[in-house]
Design a protein that fits this description.
Order of helices and strands: HHHHHHHHHHHHHHHHHHHHHHHHHHHH
Helix content: 55-70%
Radius of gyration: 27 Å
Structural class: mainly alpha
Number of domains: 2
Distance between the termini: 50 Å
């Protein structure tokens, strides 16, 4: 009775530091700055929007969870992290239940202890840190929760139609959380073959018998899947999207590079599963040309050997083999078979192991013991205990050290930049974090280091222009920003961009919005408020509803004598900002009005009638 609570307590203690972390990485893009989610009016039009520009990610259930948080607690990072931690602990408990359900039919000795081992391995595996410590990792957490519930329902609900209803309902919720849920039907089949191996039948006959006996479940899953496909077609006009990493490669190169990419991705995940202690991080970049190099081919060969071993286990109808097959099935959506869109060209992500690690934990719990008759049982127990103890220690140490690195954008991207100083995405993200933290001296050092290496990439060039604008070097800042925008004149589909007619599928919208915000800041500093208003409007075209942009536009409306509209927009934007942002924006307004209303060489503004400078708001 005490084993599962002990595992949950240990996991909670190791992860409690996440409650002090803030919003990082894409949190702002995905939900913090999403005015629709924060408006309090939640309908299908809001929940069916793609979670990222230029994608077909339909994940309404997770968006609804954030909308519910906003309604209950406002924009509160601690509450959001508490939900993520609760989901991780729930998944640990569900792994324990699923392990017990599978181990008892296998007649494994000490099933309770083995189930506890599965829960411990899953709860403490360092690769789950990203999904738990990053609020946007909730997509993977929630999809895994509902898939675990479906797998458990298949084993505990007796009636065929009742079981079908429970599984189909969980399937629908999982599909509403993340696309990886499409793998639930084959996962159900694999686990059924573990519980009901039917060794007297050929494998295909065993599969057919399961499908015939559980026709209601097959029918229910098919109906839910068909509805999901129709919803995606209705929302996006497509079921999936992809971004080829082979642009610029010789004609026909994809024919051999793509299989190598898939095998290298598989090898990456296998390595992360076995030795995750030094390779964690938000970015795992790869170079396309390296896939066909000696190391790339060697990694692909290792993945092929692993697949051959799995094939042998399946041929032997081993229960552990079917569980390892579940690992492969859970990985299929992220093995770059359909290339994933990624600014940083990452070969994979730690959070994508949230589901596969369930079956790694189950596989280890179901391993026969003793492993061999050639070594004494005492030695095997001692060796296994030492290995498990070392793994727990290293995992706990890794989690303890890594949780604080997810505390803020500054800590996260400083860590990533230190690991990958030549990666453009890491450079840009770190510089953006330094600028937001007002650490301009450190940003200047990084910029000079990058400029010494050669011309800045347009992505980083926008960051440099924004930095120069903050430093007051307005002309040079504008030159850099205009030059970068020329590089972005054509989108990924070859269409010329029109800032007044923005495609919702344009994946570069966030960086373009940032560029026009910086241009607006430049025009504001020069006193050219009409141009500043025009540019902040373009920024809002690229990223509608961002409250910081709204507050900036409100000031430009005041400066152009549109006082009523400006005051209304300022009030609305302030209500959507986080508390720490409100202080910054309120002080910015005070400084702006003081500058605006004390310029004797300019026409008197309406907002300045009867103006008396108030004291600044203390931080």
């Amino acid at each position: 009775m005490w084993l599962l609570p002990a595992v949950l307590l240990l996991t909670g203690l190791l992860y409690h530091g996440t409650l002090s972390n803030g919003f990082v990485w894409d949190d702002s893009i995905l939900f913090v700055d999403n005015a629709s989610l924060r408006s309090g009016v939640i309908d299908w039009a809001v929940l069916s929007q793609p979670v990222m520009d230029g994608t077909t990610y339909l994940r309404p259930l997770v968006l609804a969870s954030w909308a519910a948080e906003f309604r209950l607690w406002g924009v509160n990072a601690t509450a959001a992290h508490a939900v993520n931690l609760a989901l991780h602990l729930l998944n640990v408990a569900l792994v324990y239940v699923l392990a017990l359900m599978l181990l008892r039919p296998l007649a494994c000795p000490s099933p309770v202890w083995r189930a506890g081992l599965a829960a411990l391995i899953y709860g403490l595996h360092p690769c789950l840190l990203e999904a738990t410590a990053w609020i946007s990792g909730r997509f993977d957490l929630m999809a895994t929760t509902f898939m675990l519930l479906a797998l458990i329902a298949d084993g505990v609900i007796a009636g065929r139609w009742s079981r079908a209803a429970g599984i189909a309902f969980s399937f629908a919720l999982a599909l509403g959380s993340k696309e990886v849920a499409v793998m639930l039907p084959p996962l159900l089949l694999c686990l059924r073959l573990v519980r009901e191996p039917a060794p007297e039948l050929p494998l295909w006959r065993a599969v057919l018998r399961i499908a015939q006996r559980d026709f209601p479940t097959v029918l229910a899953l098919g109906l839910v899947f068909a509805l999901w496909v129709m919803l995606r077609l209705s929302a996006f006009g497509a079921v999936v999207h992809s971004a080829s990493p082979f642009v610029g490669q010789p004609s026909g190169a994809a024919l051999y590079l793509h299989p190598l990419l898939v095998l290298n991705a598989l090898q990456f995940y296998l390595a992360e599963i076995v030795v995750p202690f030094t390779t964690l991080g938000p970015l795992h970049p790869f170079i396309v040309e390296d896939l066909a190099s000696g190391p790339g081919v060697l990694r692909a060969s290792g993945a092929l050997l692993a697949l051959a071993g799995l094939a042998w286990l399946l041929w032997k109808r081993s229960p552990v083999g079917f569980l390892i097959a579940c690992v492969l099935l859970a990985l299929l959506p992220v093995l770059q078979i359909v290339p994933l869109s990624s600014t940083a060209r990452s070969i994979g992500s730690d959070r994508f192991l949230t589901l596969p690690l369930v079956f790694i934990a189950l596989s280890l719990a179901a391993m026969p013991f003793p492993l061999t008759q050639q070594v004494s049982l005492r030695v095997q127990k001692l060796g296994t205990g030492l290995l498990l103890g070392a793994w727990i220690f290293l995992s706990a140490a890794t989690i303890t050290v890594t949780v604080p690195l997810w505390r803020s954008d500054l800590s996260l991207w400083a860590w990533s930049y230190q690991k990958f100083p030549d990666l453009q995405f890491a450079q840009s993200a770190y510089l953006h974090a330094l600028s937001n933290a007002k650490r301009l001296d450190e940003a200047a050092v990084v910029f000079e280091r990058l400029r010494a290496k050669g011309p800045l990439h347009s992505f980083v060039q926008i960051q440099y222009g924004a930095y120069l604008a903050s430093a007051g070097q307005l002309d040079e800042a504008e030159n850099y920003l205009r030059g970068a925008l020329r590089a972005y004149a054509v989108d990924a589909d070859g269409n010329r961009r029109d800032p007044h007619h923005v495609s919702p599928r344009d994946g570069d919208r966030p960086i373009l919005a940032h560029a026009y915000q910086a241009l607006s800041q430049i025009h504001n500093s020069r006193g050219d408020f009409e141009e500043a208003l025009r540019d902040i409007d373009i920024a809002l075209n690229y990223k509608p509803g961002v409250p910081v942009f709204g507050a900036a536009k409100a000031l430009m409306l005041l400066a152009t004598n549109q006082v009523e509209a400006g005051e209304a927009l300022y009030t609305q934007s302030m209500s959507q900002l986080m508390p720490e942002q409100r202080l910054v924006v309120a002080n910015s307004r005070i400084r702006f009005l003081a500058r605006l209303c004390t310029q004797h060489n300019e026409p008197r503004k309406v907002i300045c009638e009867g103006y008396e400078p108030p004291p600044p708001i203390p931080h």
